[in-house]
Amino acid sequence: MHTYLVTGGAGFIGSNYIHYMFKKYGDDIRIINVDKLTYAGNLANLKGVDERKNYEFVKADICDRETIQRIFNENDIDRVVHFAAESHVDRSIKNPEVFIETNLLGTATMANCAKAAWEKEDGSFLPDHKFLHVSTDEVYGSLPDDGKSYFYETTPYDPHSPYSASKAGSDFIIKSYIDTYHFPANITNTSNNYGPFQFPEKLIPLIINNALSGKSLPVYGDGMNIRDWLYVEDHAKGIDMVQEQGVLGEKYNIGGHNERRNIDIIKTILKTLKELLPDSDPRKKNVSEDLITYVTDRKGHDRRYAIAPDKIKEKLGWYPETTFEVGIRKTIEWYLNNSDWMENVTSGAYQKYYDEMYCNR
Ligand code: NAD
Ligand code: DAU
């Protein structure tokens, strides 16, 4: 039985990954979820999972070496899946320091603690012990809007925002451990995820939430920037496939071949909301293209991201199973059916609860 240490499992992708893993492996795995519960971490994302005997939550900072090492010492961990990070580009432009701390120091701490727990006296590592570092396609920079250039695993790094620079640095930390110590790790670089439990600072949940409440829908710049959207459960599957079947030491791009302009995403959301909401729902009258508001562009805004997922497809047989048409509908339905989740997150009630709950721990 594998014992997983998942970092950032209370966040958007981490929580979807934990749900996916228990759905796939049931009682055959154990997961320890280490999360600091920043504004982006929400234990409500793990409802149902928290009752399992083979699941444990530890509130901790990945920069806290003593606590992380203790978790390794007290548990027979043979898999690490490292999601924890500051993840929002706009916040990194306003306040870069916390990105440097968590994404660089935190990743180095996780790698150091895994190395200390797994390295044998002769410098080799315990067999079948693996670390997977979850990263982003933003490390590759920006592509021209030509519809034919792509990010490959070999594309040189060219990060522009403090967020992507900190993620690029974290990738290099893991790469240096692989190159120097033969540290048993993989790196995945993934395109924009969407799906349930995404914090409404990110484009898709923000637009859904604002449209339902009749608030303006901010479009940065000309709205023609392109992102490559991937349904989060397909990402979770890809991570598991890379960890179990990938070649140790290698990196894998995970992407949906699903490029969309921001303005088209927004219009699709509005159209789908109109279709899904019954006439009797008072929120339906709020949903209108009149809410679309062009605002000052994001500083250093990358124009286009597009992943070439050829390697993971050819070597591991992974492909994005969820089409955008199906995925966006499922996502919008989830937010409509979970308005209490959104209300809790946007009101800050859950953060207050955790602050009170954990203030003396
Ligand atoms: P998120 O912001 O939703 O979640 C991050 C989680 O990490 C939260 O639960 C937060 O509490 C936790 N965390 C933050 N700082 C911590 C610390 N110091 N110690 C312990 N826990 C801490 O992020 P996400 O969108 O789920 O992204 C997860 C990972 O995937 C990140 O590494 C991100 O760079 C990467 N990624 C995200 C996307 C995307 O589209 N969202 C795409 C590619 C890669
Ligand atoms: O590409 C992977 C990355 O995708 C991840 O590494 C990041 O963690 C994740 O946040 C995401 O970054 P983006 O900056 O692409 O995502 P965001 O949802 O913030 O923005 C998507 C696009 O929409 C981007 O071009 C900016 C634009 N945008 C965003 C917001 C929040 C708007 O036009 N209006 C908005 O209000």
Give an account of the 3D structure.
This protein is an alpha/beta fold and 361 residues long. The chain has a domain at 2-191 and 232-255 and 304-322: 3-Layer(aba) Sandwich (Rossmann fold). Helix content is 42%, strand content 16%. It has helices at 12-25, 65-74, 89-94, 97-118, 162-181, 203-212, 232-245, 262-276, 310-316, 324-337, 339-347, 349-358, and strands at 2-7, 29-35, 55-59, 79-82, 130-136, 185-190, 193-194, 217-220, 226-228, 230-231, 251-254, 259-261, 292-295. It is globular. Bound molecules: nicotinamide-adenine-dinucleotide and 2'deoxy-thymidine-5'-diphospho-alpha-D-glucose. Nicotinamide-adenine-dinucleotide binds at residues 7-8, 10-14, 35-38, 40-41, 61-63, 83-87, 102, 106, 134, 136, 167, 190, 192-193, 199.
CATH superfamily of one domain: NAD(P)-binding Rossmann-like Domain
Radius of gyration: 20 Å
Mean pLDDT: 96
Helix-strand pattern = EHEEHEHHEHEEHEEEHEEHEHHHH
Q: Number of DSSP strands?
A: 13
Portion in strands: 15-25%
Largest sheet: 7 strands, parallel
Bound molecules: nicotinamide-adenine-dinucleotide, 2'deoxy-thymidine-5'-diphospho-alpha-D-glucose
Helix content: 40-55%
Sum up the overall morphology in one term: globular
CATH topology-level name of one domain? Rossmann fold
End-to-end separation in angstroms reads: 31 Å
**Briefly, what CATH class of one domain?**
Alpha Beta
Extract low-pLDDT stretches: none
The assigned structural class equals: alpha/beta
CATH architecture of one domain: 3-Layer(aba) Sandwich
